[in-house]
What we know:
Elements: E1 2-18, E2 24-43, E3 47-53, H1 64-76, E4 81-87, H2 98-113, H3 120-130, H4 134-139, E5 143-148, E6 152-155, E7 163-168, H5 175-185, H6 204-209, H7 216-222, H8 224-235, E8 240-243, E9 250-253, H9 257-270, E10 275-280
Parallel strand pairs: 3-4
Antiparallel strand pairs: 1-2, 2-4, 2-5, 5-6, 7-9, 7-10, 8-9
Helix pairs in contact: 1-2, 1-3, 7-8
Amino acid sequence: MRALAPAKINLRLEILAREASGYHQIESVFCALSLADELELVVGGTGIRLDVRGADLGPPERNLAYRAAAAFYQAAGLRAGVEIRLTKRVPAGAGLGGGSSDAAATLLALNEVHGHPLDAAMLLRLGAGLGSDVPFFLSGAALALVWGRGERILPLPPLPPAPVLLAVPPFGIATAEAYRALDRECPAAGPVPRVLRLAEAGSWEGLAAGAVNDFEAVLFPRHPLLAALRDTLAHAGARLARLTGSGSAVFGIFDSVEQRAAAAAVLARAFPHVRLIETLTAEEPSRHALG
């Protein structure tokens, strides 16, 4: 079975509170992209085998796709037996949710190929245990309001697809590192967060007006390149330009592919060491399983 694992960007990301447990409460708007990893699952044999192409992601046992498979087989009470061939196209450590999407696609594909032994609620519990972004990808939504630890999701009507330019620096940022910086440098009780009105999520203009990412305040001073990329995207005509997640990727959403191409040319000249990826926002809920 083949499955796609789409990337995401955060059109809005506010960190509302830090729990005593160390977890953070968030409010965010997630938007899926056409950029996606591809997984091929071959059921059979003994154990879980992972073959990653396109990136060096370290030991297989630490990979979220591998861990998702292990969690699935344990929860389903089945003997593990699958080979996962993962082709990486989504940059790792960039705030694009690639690993979480791989985990969600693995859970959904294994559940389908084994005859749906787990219901949606169990899959959601497994996903939330693997990572805070996994529930969004399990939902299959193209656009969604996400809050809590990431497990509460309100799918929103998808907007017309828009051209996106991703600027990916030659370094990643660990999510845990970003949260530690936020905890150190931001007061425990910050300003009252701006309430997102659902009507704003009905248009690109409304989403742009409410765009924010709380990580920018602590990460941009540490990594000035990120601020320069965001500002260059905005000056090149992006209607919305922000850091996604905890970085390190920065994105711009444009009105046309021509405008995006012109912006890409500007960034390529100014930042030749930065990887540029042209993609689109997703128009419809994602279909992980391709058969």
